[in-house]
Amino acid sequence: MAARAIHYMGQRKDGPFVPINCGALTEHLIESELFGHERGAFTDAKHSSGGLIQEANGGTLFLDEIDSLGHKAQAALLRFLQDGMYRRVGSGKIQQANVRILVASNANLLQMAEEKKFRKDLYFRISVLSLRLPNLRDRTGDAVELAEIFVSRFARHYGRAKAKLTPESVVYINNHEWPGNVRELENAVHRAFLLSDGPHIVLPDVPEADEAGLPRTTQGFRAAKVEAVKKFERGYVLQLMNETGGNITKAARLAHQDPSAFGKLVRKYRSDLNA
User: What is this structure's pTM?
Assistant: First the structure.
């Protein structure tokens, strides 16, 4: 988002914005990916390709996670940054491109350079102007504002009526550390949105997940959702009824639900309440 803002609020806004995750670049084809290639330059080169540099000409090439580039790729990038000159793989013609290069990294590139894991000359070449984006937990109020944006976006995407975060969810979002920053927040809101059947989005009530972030189930999506919602409803109703001494009207008010609708939930789990 920061890279897009720099591009679209600058003098190159009418040029192309080309983002690429460096971790997705194949090491042995890095020069072909960046600079393009001529037909027949290597085994799979059935057609000529202009490459990312040509695609971004006149605009911005955003290299995300640049720390994942191997040394061969770093050398190729450094050569281009020296004078903006490059050659397609398999071509003897030198070309020039007018491209602004933006890079991003979650790693400490200077430390990597000191440890010889990243070229020091490339580090100094790309660090002419550096911007540090603080962690989400250090940006007071941003997490809730972003969460509200995500809720609105998901509502449009899934064609649902306008939804909103509950006050309890706002408190949770403000207090959570969010070690995974914006991506973690977006995923948490997305899961909570999918589990919500009404207009109120509740965090952090999401299904238990494995290390990959996927629900611990072999069921299909619909069955897994039904099971997760049932588990959430039972725990939520039990907790509210305990807190209100069994007062359905008061519990419904705390849950921002119609008393009759909440009463149906209470009846649904009455056996658990009496256990």
Answer: 0.62
